[in-house]
Amino acid sequence: MAPEDQIILITGASGFLASHVVDYFLRAGYQVRGTVRSSATAEKVRQTFSGYAPQLTLAIVEDVARPGAFDTAVNGVHGVVHTAAPFQVFGVEDNERDLLKPAIDGTLNILKSVREFAPQVKRVVLTSSFAAMFDPTKDKWPGHVYSELDWNPTPYEAAAAEGAPAGLAYSTAKSLAERYAWDFVKSNKVNFDITTIMPPMIYGPNINATADLAKLNTSSMDIYRLMSPQSKSSDPVPENMFWSFVDVRDVAEAHLRAYQVVEAGGERFFICKGNFTYQQFVDALRAHLPDIKARVPIGNPGAGEVPSDVYTIDTSKSQRILGLKYRPLEETIVDAARSLLDLEAMSA
Q1: Average pLDDT for residues 119-126, to the nearest whole number?
Q2: What is the pLDDT of residues 233-268, one digit of tens each?
Q3: How far apart are CA 221 and CA 228, in angstroms?
Q4: Of 102, 80, 78, nearest to 11 (Cα)?
Q5: Residue 93's pLDDT band (boundaries 50, 70, 90)?
Q6: How far apart are CA 259 and CA 197, in angstroms?
Q7: pLDDT digits (tens, 9 = 90+) for 96-107
Q8: Which residues, listed in sequence order, are joined to residue 57 by a DSSP beta bridge?
Q9: Is the pLDDT of residue 167 over 90?
Q10: Strands 145-146 and 193-198
């Protein structure tokens, strides 16, 4: 079936990553039905993709964790890309309520709706995360090579326990949501297969309609703090809390190819460019955006090598099956910064 004859449901369509996923599917010729939480957000998404108005429709799903939330939205679609999930590690009051249940229930809800109301769907692509692979007990894990064979081993009870860090609950939520998805497909008679996409920190340009300097997504804020008007060249370069990264456009392309490539069915894909340090980030910003050098930390230029005791990564599977070619760090960071400068100009 040609792309123009297929409707693809993309959940959470206003998000940082999801906007790029929508963009890739629209440019590939598909009809896209995006889900958003409100009519106001729907209008912003329409404005973002005004050039594709005939291909784009939007459905309001206020709460992805509500039973039956997607029953109507899946009607008549040919494929599903589920990106909608909580990404929050600050201000969490209840790990179970705010992170674990929404992630797990939202994933199971979309699969249940497809099984019951969209028998024509043959593939569901789920946005998982490197958090579903990462073992928090190993820290840098010297000598280890992360790949699709890895799973975060943290149990639900540990993440839901009172006082457990929200970051642990977030990573566990991603791991368990993916595990529950695989178990659902194995345990139920379904007409579709699933493919999961596991990116680490996702950087790159903002194209989402809801982008706002006052409430940037986590990874955009991670870049902006290195170049905001409040920062200066004498500021210290931050220490890494996370080591691996990927460009948002490469992750979006991975979702598209995971839907299109027959051999991708039933597979997990680690989507990652490699490891980084913030010294590499500031070096790229200072080299390619000289107008903002005064507000980008200098640090120790050229000394941004990733420490040898940090785990490494293997993304050969994504390159072999999906045919991905990853963008270099400089392109990712500079394009992210340029989009943030555009937001600055719009809000001035």
Answers
A1: 98
A2: 999 999 999 999 999 999 999 999 999 999 999 999
A3: 9
A4: 80
A5: confident
A6: 11
A7: 988 899 899 999
A8: 33
A9: no
A10: unpaired
Query: Backbone phi, then psi, for 130, in 5-degree steps?
Result: -55, -25
Q: Which among 13, 218, 254 is positioned nearest to 128, based on CA atoms?
A: 254
pLDDT at 81: 98
**CATH 3.40.50.720 fits domain 3-210+243-276+309-327:** yes
| Domain ranges across the chain | 3-210+243-276+309-327
Q: Rg of the chain's alpha carbons, rounded to an integer?
A: 20
User: Which residue numbers are catalytic?
Assistant: 174
As a whole number of angstroms, the distance between CA 331 and CA 247 comes to: 9
Please identify which residue in the block is written with the tokens 């699969």: 111
- Cα 259 from Cα 126, distance rounded (Å): 10
Average pLDDT, the chain: 95
Crossing angle of helices 248-260 and 16-27, in 10° steps, is: 50
Instruction: Note the pLDDT tens digit of each residue in 15-25.
Output: 999 999 999 99
Q: 46 φ, ψ to 5°?
A: -60, -40
Q: Which two tokens stand for residue 40?
A: 């106001």
